[in-house]
Design a protein that fits this description.
The complex is a heterodimer of chains A (500) and B (359). Chain A has 500 residues and is an alpha/beta fold. Chain A is 36% helix and 17% strand. With 359 residues, chain B is an all-alpha fold. Classes of the chains: A alpha/beta (500), B mainly alpha (359). The interface between A and B is large, with 79 and 52 residues.
Chain lengths: 500, 359
């Protein structure tokens, strides 16, 4: 297949060999699981259980609420100890509402939803409902509720489902292992998703540094003419949705649009496997594969982990720390977040836990920018990090916005390449945060203004009605006066209320 | 189990490059050409070279101390050494010590630190140093000597060299005109280029560097080798060097074709003066050149064309320093007009239009 070049990018030390040959192993069930109500983009789920309830594996314990949300299910059987505030897997280390489940050690499945007998005969709503009921979110890291993305077929004309198996972040091998060990499940899930989306074509993009995964997936897909497995160049950030679409189709997603506007929907390979489980067996998303790696980990592993296991449980299962880590990272080293506490649980979007030594991170004190232009050359978004950072340093965020800082998706390539070790992406994250706040503030003011204007118009109308009523009284006419009087009274009361 | 806590945000990986490594690689690339010229011009050149770098480092330390910045850590970035090195390469090889010191003051204190230090200067420090010297001390700055290779008969010994560099005793009858200077002087006397060119070293000597000229500029081939090394190491790209040389060659070749008696040939221009040094090591200075590929091409072409204009029509026989400084002043504006196109946007910054049938 003809591939298309993507702009910029970097070639970090991939270090995937630490875990790429390690088959997925199950985490021994921890005695206690901590299931946060919000593990996804959108509103937290609504709790369905209370202290002391006995639950079975796969039973829904929190229901999605609002337009964008995802349900949570019990990852094992046991008793609800409590619903309380527990440290979130977030750099802030702030607590969030979490269901605490004590395992009974039996790991008994609840009565599950019936499998959808012939998913290819079912309509898209049946499949999307099942995906929503199963609490499936994007497993590449963003954790966007998948059912909503599967609904795009209703709004847009789609032609391609693109499965993202690029896994361009260094260290991470969870998708690689899933593709090697469960290719048939992924292919089946992908076909079901494509059916729901109404796309005729499925392309699976895998970086060429995973030859075994490409081989196994190609073999599993060989029976289906509509599926194509493509090895894409090893180039970070190939796994970025928009860049992968460009590499495979040559289409460039316009700013502020979705890839779906080009007719392409991108899902992660592990998400496809979760859809397969939900549709074929009625099993909700209660576990995922997590890569635990880094030089500070004694025995790096790919671990099938129940959602809610503490990160400390995983590290212990890997033999603990071989040396004191400089940082423990949630996700890949490029876009992952530092973890404030190992007590935080694994959630649906946790792809990796990395315990990194100072040597691996290779951080150095920041020195002055020498305008070497590396950041401009490698920016996959075509931005000028050097200039944006100069504006942000002087707190001229509007100028940075003009240069396109809001188009930055924080891949971190600029920070990686900077010879002066300037934390460029950190500057941009800061600017994006402040600019978003300003935008919200502006929207709020705008709303207040609209409301105030509406009120003025209302008052004016009321006053006019009053005048009209007075005028009507002065020239009485039997048919209309009664009505006008009533109207005048009502408007008067409203006005009083408003004035009060 | 406890962890160190959060002391930084991502990414948690970094390329193995650093400012120090970059500067060091550039210094390494300068070694062959410099070593050859130090050999060619002997002990006085070695003394001048040492004095220039020493003065630059000392003045850098002084400025850092005045500004209250860390001295040791900043000196370690090697940028002052590089500036001193390049300044030395642009001086006449047997120039007196004070010339180097005055040049260093202007390069480091005025051109670099008064703007805020490394990365903040608009103009190339070494070229500011050289230009100030050229304007203030035109005679001293154009006293070229014929090659006096180390240990060759007639070459000054170490003792004699001290008196040349520190005593100001320039021996008689060693000076020579540079090729560019010779052509220019002859032209002003009404002698056409076609005749005067016979009295400059032949092309091979020009390329290899066995000729009169500044301390580090004479060997085009060794400088080219250093430049290619920098490209291989991805410190510089082809954009600036190629366009500087290309722009100069093109202008010279076109006008030479029109009037060979008035205008020297393209090859002559390319191999004389500081063309190669300027193209590979001066114009490519990160701080003072544009950051985009397109910008670099415009910048390089501008330098090349200006070098030719100055050499041909201005009062000075050599124009590399002036041309680079002029283009330095344009670098910010070039950057502003050559920004890359952002992903998903037109070059004007509007979101790309969607295909109609899909929307």
């Amino acid at each position: 297949m003809k591939l298309f070049p993507i702009r910029g990018g970097i070639h970090p030390d991939y270090r995937k060999e630490q875990t790429s040959e390690k088959a997925i192993v199950d985490l021994p069930m921890p005695s206690t699981l901590y299931i946060p109500l919000q593990q996804h983009i959108g509103a937290p789920a609504e709790v369905l259980v209370s202290e002391g309830d006995l639950v079975k594996k796969g039973q829904m314990i929190a229901r999605n609420q609002g337009a964008v949300s995802a349900s949570q299910h019990a990852p094992t059987s046991g008793r609800i100890r409590t619903v309380t505030e527990v440290t979130a897997p977030h750099p802030s280390g702030l607590p969030q509402s979490t269901i605490v489940l004590e395992s009974d050690g039996k790991d008994e499945w609840a009565e599950l939803l019936a499998p959808i007998a012939d998913p290819f005969a079912a309509d898209m709503h049946t499949i999307n409902d099942r995906v929503a009921q199963s609490g499936i979110v994007g497993m590449g890291g963003a954790a966007f509720p998948s059912a909503i993305k599967l609904n795009l077929g209703e709004q847009k004309k789609l032609d391609t489902l693109l499965l993202n198996g690029a896994e361009c972040e260094p260290y991470l091998t969870c998708d690689d292992r899933v593709m090697r060990e469960f290719p048939e499940e992924i292919i089946d899930g992908a076909r079901i998703m494509a059916h729901a989306l109404g796309t005729a074509r499925i392309v699976i993009g895998i970086e060429q540094n995973k030859p075994q995964a490409i081989e196994n997936m190609t073999k599993a897909a060989s029976a289906f003419a509509e599926i194509e497995v493509v090895g894409v160049p090893v180039q970070y950030p190939m796994g970025s949705e928009r860049h992968l679409v460009q590499a495979i189709t040559g289409l460039e997603t316009p700013a502020r649009k979705l890839t779906a506007d080009l007719g392409i929907v991108v899902h992660n390979v592990s998400t496809a496997r979760a859809v397969h489980h939900a549709v074929r067996f009625g099993r909700p998303l209660v576990s995922r594969v997590v890569t635990v790696s880094g030089n500070a980990i004694r025995e790096p592993k790919n671990i099938m982990t129940p959602i809610g296991a503490r990160i400390a449980d995983l590290i212990e299962f890997c033999g603990g720390f071989a040396s004191r880590p400089e940082s423990v990272v949630n996700g890949g080293p490029m876009m992952g977040q530092p973890l404030a506490s190992l007590e935080a649980p694994v959630v649906k979007g946790t792809s990796g836990i990395l315990a990194l030594t100072a040597e691996e991170i290779n951080d150095n004190p920041t020195t002055p920018c020498i305008r070497c232009s590396s950041c401009v050359t490698i920016c996959p978004c075509g931005l000028s990090p050097v200039d944006m950072a100069a504006h942000i340093r002087k707190d001229k965020l509007e100028l940075a916005a003009k240069l396109g800082v809001m188009d930055c998706f924080s891949c971190g390539s600029c920070s990686f390449i900077c010879p002066s070790h300037i934390p460029l992406v950190h500057y941009f994250n800061y600017a994006k945060g402040v600019l978003n706040d300003l935008e919200r503030e502006r929207n709020k003011n705008e709303r207040v203004k609209t409301l105030a204007e509406a009120r003025n118009i209302r008052l004016e109308k009321a006053a006019e009605a009053k005048r009209a009523a007075l005028a009507a009284r002065k020239t009485p006419s039997a048919t209309t006066s009664a009505g006008n009087e009533n109207e005048a009274k009502t408007t008067a009361t409203t006005e009083e209320k408003v004035n009060a | 189990m406890s962890i160190a806590g959060i002391n930084k945000s991502g990414p948690f990986a970094h390329a193995s490059n650093s400012v120090q490594k970059t500067m060091f690689t550039v210094l390494l690339a300068l070694v062959p050409a410099t070593a050859f010229n130090l050999y060619l011009f002997g002990w006085p050149a070695i003394l001048l070279f040492t004095v220039t770098i020493g003065a630059c480092v000392a003045i850098e330390a002084g400025c850092l101390s005045l500004a209250g910045k860390p001295i040791k850590a900043t000196l370690a970035d090697c940028s002052a050494i590089l500036t001193g090195w390049l300044l030395a390469m642009s001086l006449p090889p047997w120039a007196p010590w004070w010339l180097a010191v005055v040049g260093a003051v202007f390069a480091i204190a005025m051109a670099k630190h008064s703007f805020g230090g490394l990365g903040q200067n608009v103009f190339n420090p070494a070229m500011v140093g050289r230009t100030v010297l050229l304007i203030s001390f035109p005679v001293t700055m154009t006293t070229w000597i014929v090659p006096h290779p180390l240990f060759s008969p007639g070459a000054p010994g170490l003792f004699e060299a001290f008196s040349i560099t520190f005593g100001g005793h320039m021996p008689d009858a060693v000076s020579a005109a540079s090729a560019l200077g010779h052509i220019k002087t002859e032209l002003s006397r009404g002698i056409p280029v076609t005749e005067s060119i016979a009295h400059v070293p032949d092309l091979m000597d020009m390329a290899l560097g066995y000729r009169a000229g500044s301390l580090g500029e004479t060997s085009a081939i060794l400088i080219l080798a250093g430049g290619l090394f920098l490209m291989a190491k991805r410190i510089i790209t082809w954009h600036i060097p190629l366009t500087v040389i290309g722009g100069l060659f093109l202008m010279a070749a076109i006008f030479h074709a029109i009037d060979p008696a008035r205008f020297a040939s393209g090859t002559f221009h390319v191999f004389s003066g500081a063309t190669f040094l300027g193209a590979f090591f001066i114009a490519t200075d990160y701080v003072t050149s544009p950051v985009t590929m397109k910008g670099k091409i415009i910048f390089g072409l501008g330098c090349g064309i200006l070098i030719w204009l100055i050499r041909t029509f201005a009062g000075y026989p050599e124009g590399v320093a002036f041309a680079v400084l002029l283009m330095n002043s344009l670098a910010p504006i070039i950057d502003q007009y050559t920004r890359p196109r952002a992903f998903g946007r037109t070059s004007k910054g509007e979101p790309l239009p969607l295909d109609k049938d899909k929307s």
